[in-house]
Amino acid sequence: MNRLLNGDVGSGKTLVAAIAAWNVARAGKQTAFMVPTEILARQHFRTLSRLLSGTGVRPALLVRSAAETVEGPLSAGTLRERISGGEVDVVVGTHALLEGKVSIPKLALAVIDEQHRFGVEQRRRLREKMEEKRRKGEGKQKEKRMLPHLLSMTATPIPRTMAMTIYGDLDLSVLDEMPPGRTPVETRLLSSGRMAEVEEIIRQAAREGHQSFVICPQIDASDPANDGAGRAGARAAVAEHRRLCQALPDLSVSLLHGRLPAAERERTMAAFAAGEIQALVSTSVVEVGVDIPNATVMVIEEAERFGLAQLHQFRGRVGRGENASLCLLVPGAECGQEGMERLRIAAGTQDGFALAEKDLELRGPGRIFGTEQSGRQADAALLSDPALIIETQEAAGAFLAGDPGLAGHPALRAELKTLGEDVHLE
Hints:
Layout: E1 2-7, H1 13-26, E2 30-34, H2 38-51, E3 59-63, E4 66-69, E5 72-73, H3 76-84, E6 90-93, E7 107-113, H4 120-136, H5 141-144, E8 149-154, H6 159-166, E9 171-175, E10 186-189, H7 195-207, E11 211-215, H8 237-247, E12 253-256, H9 262-273, E13 279-282, E14 295-301, H10 308-315, E15 326-330, H11 337-348, H12 352-363, H13 377-380, H14 386-402, H15 410-422
Parallel strand pairs: 1-8, 1-9, 2-6, 2-7, 3-6, 7-8, 10-15, 11-13, 11-14, 12-13, 14-15
Antiparallel strand pairs: 3-4, 4-5
């Protein structure tokens, strides 16, 4: 299996992955579940532990700051020994799973959540991890040839992923329905001169017992290379937190960003989940996976500095309960015409695939192979003629059917071998 599972935020992708991991465990094999952030890893570990409770499946969490099983925390070294000894069925982690110290000898399924947050090099390293057993020649002959299945999950495929889907390297499954009771998130485009209105919306949500996110593109103004769009002069989370504490003195306003110690980030998210924090100012660290059903307001400041995929993910942090929710896109004072057009698209489009198509139209698919992640318009022309793409795929299939090993085309075989060494994980 080499499959992309697309479902909007909150549509049940984690449940699908849990069922797949359960089936893998029944066969005596292991699953690696890789996510982009520790916050998301901890949340998935808790969710999988709940979903798999009573099934006999043994999940574990391995991130840089913690190692844990359902029985409680333990040392990273001990957990690695249990994983390599086959005593863990599902290991959830971040890029820590790519370390050479981590051995997953019975790996049969690799799940990547929100794959667009991983760089090509990280995804290639996971593929190498998946092939370790085959290269080392462990186990039975059949197992030596086994390449683990790949399930890549995302709420908004970026153009590069869509290009790979069109090129046929990924099978595609779509979860096109939301759980009962979900209502679409209302999205408004609001000028930066209306911050007093934004503050009143946050205050009103708190009066109703709900919570709000406020997203900024960087941590502080002195460092434009922070975890966000990272550009000098961008709205900074530290300063915005300080400003909102003064503007909303009657509310509990907290701060979250990637420079804080992992333990502090975990405490802040736990307090927010418990309803102890009414407004959380954050960078893009909350972009994916954070599940706070009581949060009903998402404010994204200088929203043009984020891509369409990020904006859609931010919006997905609210509207996860039964209450009406609101996403406010606030452009910066220097937002240009192109940025405003992207924000209008985000405000008017709820469908993840539709957003990806618009992003493809605006930015191009990027390099289909290799390490470049940004768009390239030269490739976009290839996607403007679906009939030509289908015809090309059929021609390639017929060509390989006549010469599967390319024995009669050694130069092409050598070129494909080189390409195969560089291709990204999907």
